[in-house]
Amino acid sequence: LMLHPAGPLGSARSGMILADVTPGLNARAQELRRDLEEVRTLRTLQEEAAKRLEDGLAGVQQARADLSQAIADRTDLPQRFVEDPVRTAILLDSTETLLSATEDEDISLAQIAEEAGVSLASVYYFFPNRNAVYVALARRFNEEIYRRSIIPPTDPEPETWQELLAMKHTAAAAFQNSRPAALRLFLGAGVSVAVRNADFAGNARIARSRARMFEAYFDMQPMPDLAHRIEISAAAMDGIWSLSYGHHGRITEEYRQEGTACAVTYLRQFLPEYLPRRPLTEDALDRIEVQDTEA
Fold first, then answer.
1. Do 109 and 123 meet the contact criterion of CB atoms below 8 Å apart?
2. Residue 226 near residue 189, CB atoms below 8 Å
3. pTM of this prediction?
4. Helices (H), ranges, 102-225
5. By three-state DSSP, how is residue 269 classified?
6. Which class for 161: exposed (0-12), middle (13-18), buried (19 or more C-beta within 10 A)?
7. pLDDT tens digit string along 120-153?
8. What is the DSSP string of 140-172?
9. Residue 285 to residues 159, 209, 222, 294: CA-CA distances in angstroms?
């Protein structure tokens, strides 16, 4: 038994004091215990969130690497771009809307996400940067333009190869004028190398089909490099169309005619002024379309 130095009265007073403060100390100890549990829970959540962020960043970095490699090799886009075509189409539609509605050259992925009504992380999952979106949109435009380019003109049918070119150029200009985003991507001044390469690939495919269309409509001698010559003539025409876009914000009919005249003048170095028509056949028309992977 321990006695207070002040005697029994001091011991009694000490006991009363301890009895008063002990419940408060116990309550404070319980609060501290709960606080420690909350800290432990928060730390666990932070560690899990950090792990998720690391996994997400690794996915974004891999997507960026895959896309860069695809652009460099001019191969198909990474698998995630094609495995969810609906969400990809929504993002491309939103990008086209922004390009059409504003002259701002610095459209961000955040703006695309807001326009599409999705999170920024969803955009990053498919596109690591703005240029990747532009390349995908350019490829989609290329496919639309190509599908229109291989439709055989039949009402009326062209009687000369010059008339065939004029018909196709008129239709192409009308399509691009109806899609301001396509004008900006293909004819604007701030076009990236990757978008330009996508445009070149699309033009080369159109040229191959255009050469086969010439052969379907006209009786002509074999010309192995005809597609290459048509591709060069189209590049010259595109230069004139770019000038029209720079001056007028669209392809005017005057500049369309000038572009066609330039293409015709170049091709006259390799084609006779007159090529006799030949009857259209199903086999010849079926040969016009070429696959995107054909050389």
1. yes
2. no
3. 0.70
4. 109-116, 120-126, 130-149, 161-178, 180-187, 193-217
5. coil
6. buried
7. 998 988 899 989 999 999 999 999 999 999 999 9
8. HHHHHHHHHHTSPP-TTPPSSHHHHHHHHHHHH
9. 16, 10, 17, 18
